[in-house]
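[job 4471] stage=fold_predict status=RUNNING
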Amino acid sequence: MCAEQAELHVNGCLDVSVLAEKKHKRREAAKSAATQQTAKTETIKPPVISTALEMLREIEHKSFDICVAHEASKPVYNKHTPEVALQPRSVRPLPDYKRMPFTSFTVDAFKYGVVEFCTAYFLTHFHSDHYGGLTRSFSGHVYCSRITANCVVHKLGVSHEQVHALPMNTRCNVQGVYVTFIDANHCPGAVVIVFEVPSEQGLVRIVHTGDFRASREHVEQILRIVAIDTQKAVLPEHVMSAQATLCVSPTIDYVYLDTTYLQPSYVFPPQTDVVRAVASFCSKINADASFLPNFGHKPNPRISPITRWFPSRSPQSVRKRRVLFVVGSYTIGKERLFIEIAQHLGARIYVSPAKRRMLECLGSSQLVQMLAPDMSAQVHVVEMSRVNMRGMAEHLASAQKCGGFSSVVAFSPTGWAHSGMHYGARPEPRGPDPLDPGLADPESHEDFERTTQLLAQAACMHGDSTFTIDNLKPRGSSSTVTIFPVPYSEHSSFAELARFVCSLKATRIIPTVFSSAAINDTAARWLRHWQTINMHFERRARAADANIPPTHHPTLGLRDCKNIV
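[job 4471] inference complete, writing structure tokens
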């Protein structure tokens, strides 16, 4: 770049008026030179610059061309067609699994631009991978739960008029389609959606799980909803009643399934066990800080003689140290864990101002009262990405100023930090494994009752197992920071997915989480095999003409599964 061009570029960045004046002089000089030429040449007029922003863009592109002219592989700005460089990015096409069949509805489909056919955009919960693309300029109509609606309006700035909050456990009519929300056991406001679509072929039943932690209650509630005639109301007392009995087991035409953990290595203990163990663990540390350094370690009788020269720390001074407890969280979620810890300690909770505004959207006055105005609170909630050794050391340094904390114990509650190898992988069953997708023909099993029992036991594996303090193993530790991964998952484990699929008579099951081609293929084979098992059970039951209520049908495996959460 020559001196004149460099000066022109710098002046353009600092003062647009100087740029305009010099550019005008250059144009006049170019016109004068062109008229004096004897040979006839074609004069190419530069594009008309109408705004200061376009002036700066042209200077930027010209400078770029001069610097990289020798690199033919790099794109060069063409000043004759500036509109090509300013074209907006193409919008990704809408995947088929985002559109609900026989409707003009989509679910969690906000990052695909304006969908021409869509008349109702459903949002299952307020996590960014589901509401991504939803902004204040969104022009469609959003249907979600009350908690999610509060988050959409206050966090994203979407207009109240465009957000429609539907009541929980109540059948609603949305543009001629019957829609019922039930709790997804995921994060506050997350829902499983039951669509009942009148069509020429009859009533089409669709279940979209969103993100969910499958449980026995989900199966029972879905069956209660679809068993009630659409001409009748479905109210919370119908969905939640434990005394409700079913005379038929309706078929679900489509199930859109959360397959986040559709791998056998993921076996999670019940959430209640995890919450109880972590809260109890924090209480022990809070009562006696010396409990943590000795936790999980056996005393070593062979002590080097030189260590006896060092003064031992007084137990009383150890007990006086104040420990800070930190829980990782997402935008919304993990509330059960940090609330339980705070209640066990009799402490308050500190969150960032942004997180506080989010928690206020939940509509719980009791939770808001537990929030502290500063970092002196003993329980803190931070972003999940901050729960690492460096992040916790920095957080402890900030909290020491007003809290007087000497150390921090942090928890990373996520299923990704856990697999079967930590708490015992799924044991090999005796005989044929009914969950194995390699078994192409379940009907070849000679002992049908034994197969049924195997399915119930394998599908509910670890359902009755307990999670205690002894299961906690630190991922990293120093003299002031200790981090524990916690298998507190808000997604379904592999066994819970098996039980859910085998408990519903579903014609088609569509995964909503995708990974590599190999993993996707394996997931599809699991689902097809479980459906085959379910159909086999149904044929056997009909052949035996068993007069058994569907809630106790062998397919459900509910008789052999207890305390499943």
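[job 4471] summary: The longest strand covers residues 191-199.
[job 4471] exit 0
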